[in-house]
Write a structure and sequence with these properties.
The protein is an alpha/beta fold. It is built from 13 helices and 13 strands. The strands form three sheets. It has a seven-stranded mixed beta sheet, with helices on both faces. Strands 9-10-13-12 form a four-stranded antiparallel beta sheet. The protein starts with 17 loop residues before the first helix and ends with a helix. Belongs to the class-II pyridoxal-phosphate-dependent aminotransferase family. Histidinol-phosphate aminotransferase subfamily. This is Histidinol-phosphate aminotransferase. It catalyses: L-histidinol phosphate + 2-oxoglutarate = 3-(imidazol-4-yl)-2-oxopropyl phosphate + L-glutamate.
Length: 377
């Protein structure tokens, strides 16, 4: 007996962990820093850490009360109804819920390339197909309605990542509104705002609720996560905010208790820990600016907690930096073999990353010059 044909499914490539790399290099984990997975450099919200400890003795029970409490807290945060908030096991779980709700076999979704591989993976898991629109490196990964609409062909879901991973570009709400207005009535536009706390702009929730000069829409949803600004990547907690018309579908597509007791209690504590989020955002803004000003290569402007850097040979640079104790993301898996992505770290981590990268770039350039001289003799 064999599984179904999965040959068209692409495996997700996660950033490498410190322990894994340390074992491979024969070094102590403390010698390395990891700026590859867009994690919070300050760790989890301290309030969430306390909540996890206090909730540990209650994990024998299903998280029904905690789930309801967190749903209400998120709804209050965004001024929406509780039923519009779909808690999930990370943002990935919310992607699955939306696909379960929307997709019939052979429906298509439209996704950005380069972009987050799991949009397409999830669609195929749910027997949908995947189409793509391109964000061009030469145009600094600009995101406009024209780019999306030119590629659109009646797709059931259009995915917009704003801020975009791995470039950090954003799409203006007026552009998103135009996409929603000019696509079919049965097309849902989903705005993935996993990095929204780091962006200088309002959430696409304004389009759902009809705020700030926009009319309310029933064809836009928003994705958010506790993984980044709140530092809870390890407990896997995310959510979607959907239009009123979609609210009742959650009970039919939700994996029972997918958001665990520990995750919900951590989320409840973290959502009120404004000091931790403010500190994280401040660190990110400073780190982004410093890297743009001091890296000896082109760094794209970013609204995420990371920057994308043009280094020529991403694999060579990533391997050389790793040998020197700094783990960053080789973006070849995004279809950008000339680029690396560096997560915004603490001041010390950012300094070390920049110093290491500049040294690696200088050494690789010297090696290239030496090779050229040898070839010409």
């Amino acid at each position: 007996m064999k599984p179904r044909d999965l040959s068209d499914h692409v495996a997700y490539e996660a950033g490498r962990g410190i322990e894994e790399v340390a074992r491979e290099l024969g070094r102590e984990p403390s010698e390395l820093i990891k700026l590859a997975s867009n994690e919070n450099p300050h760790g989890p919200s301290p309030a969430a850490t306390v909540a996890i400890r206090e909730a540990a003795s209650s994990v024998s029970s299903y998280p029904k009360a905690a789930h309801a409490d967190l749903t209400a807290a998120v709804a209050d945060r965004w001024d929406v109804s509780d039923k519009q908030v779909w808690l999930a096991n990370g943002g990935d779980g919310a992607i699955d819920y939306l696909h379960r709700t929307a997709l019939e076999p052979d429906d298509t979704i439209l996704v950005p390339t380069p972009g987050f591989a799991y949009y397409g993976m999830s669609s195929r898991f749910h027997h949908g197909d995947v189409r793509k629109y391109s964000l061009e490196r030469e145009a600094d990964f600009e995101q406009t309605a024209d780019i999306v609409l030119e590629a659109y062909d009646g797709d059931r879901i259009v995915w917009i990542t704003s801020p975009h991973n791995p470039s950090g570009s954003t799409m203006a709400l007026a552009e998103i509104e135009r996409i929603a207005a000019e696509t079919d009535a049965e097309t849902l536009v989903v705005v993935d705002e996993a990095y929204g706390e780091f962006a200088d702009g309002e959430s696409a929730l304004s389009l759902i609720e009809g705020r700030n000069g926009f009319e309310s829409r029933d064809d836009v949803a928003v994705l958010r996560t506790f993984s980044k600004a709140y530092g809870l990547a390890g407990v896997r907690l995310g959510y979607a905010v959907v239009p009123d018309e979609w609210a009742d579908a959650y009970a039919r597509v939700n994996t029972p208790f997918a958001a665990s007791e520990l995750a919900c209690r951590a989320g409840l504590a973290a959502i009120d820990d404004e000091e931790h989020v403010e500190r994280t955002v401040e660190t990110t803004l400073e780190s982004r600016q410093y890297m743009r000003e001091t890296i000896d290569a082109h760094v794209w402007e970013s609204e995420g907690n990371f920057v994308l850097v043009d280094v020529g040979d991403a694999t060579a640079v990533a391997e050389a930096m790793q040998e020197r104790g700094v783990i960053i993301r080789d973006c070849s898996s995004f279809g950008l073999p000339g680029c690396i992505r560096i997560t915004c770290g603490t001041d010390d981590e950012t300094d070390r990353a920049v110093e290491t990268l500049n040294a690696v770039l200088a050494d690789l350039e010297l090696d290239d010059d030496t090779d050229s001289e040898v070839a010409n003799t």
